[in-house]
């Protein structure tokens, strides 16, 4: 944890150059961190799919989305129902970011 109510991924350490790119989302009112990571991943994917993102910067957005999903999965494992939350993350990711189609 970096501050009260903030999730900090534990393994492996976030590389410094990548940490500067990522904004760690706030923990939800429920105390769960995974929804914020899911939403951040959806924003990054939407940006990567946007015509302006289909250049080198889009690759960074894809990496960010991957990072957010990875950290979201780690956060989901700390909840009272990891299986349900992981399945929800997978389903939302498979459907794609809102407004991208």
Describe this structure in words.
By secondary structure, this protein is mainly alpha-helical. The protein has a domain at about 30-95. Helix content is about 55%, strand content about 0%. The radius of gyration is 13 Å and the shape is globular. The termini are far apart.
Keywords:
56% helix, 101 residues, single chain, 4 helices, globular, mainly alpha
Rg of Cα set: 13 Å
Compressed to H and E, one letter per element, the order equals: HHHH
Shape: globular
Give the total of beta strands.
Answer: 0
Mean pLDDT: 77
The span between the termini is: 36 Å
Count of helical regions = 4
Strand proportion: under 5%
Helix-residue proportion: 55-70%
Class computed from helices, strands and strand pairing: mainly alpha
Low-confidence blocks of residues? 1-5
Largest sheet: none
């Amino acid at each position: 944890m970096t501050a009260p109510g903030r999730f900090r991924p534990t393994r492996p350490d976030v590389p410094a150059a990548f940490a500067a790119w990522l904004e760690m989302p706030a923990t939800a009112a429920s105390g769960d961190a995974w929804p914020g990571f899911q939403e951040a991943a959806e924003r990054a994917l939407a940006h990567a799919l946007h015509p302006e993102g289909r250049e080198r910067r889009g690759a960074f957005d894809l990496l960010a989305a991957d990072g957010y999903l990875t950290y979201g999965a780690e956060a989901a494992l700390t909840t009272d129902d990891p299986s349900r939350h992981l399945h929800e993350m997978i389903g939302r990711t498979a459907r794609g970011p809102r407004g991208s189609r």
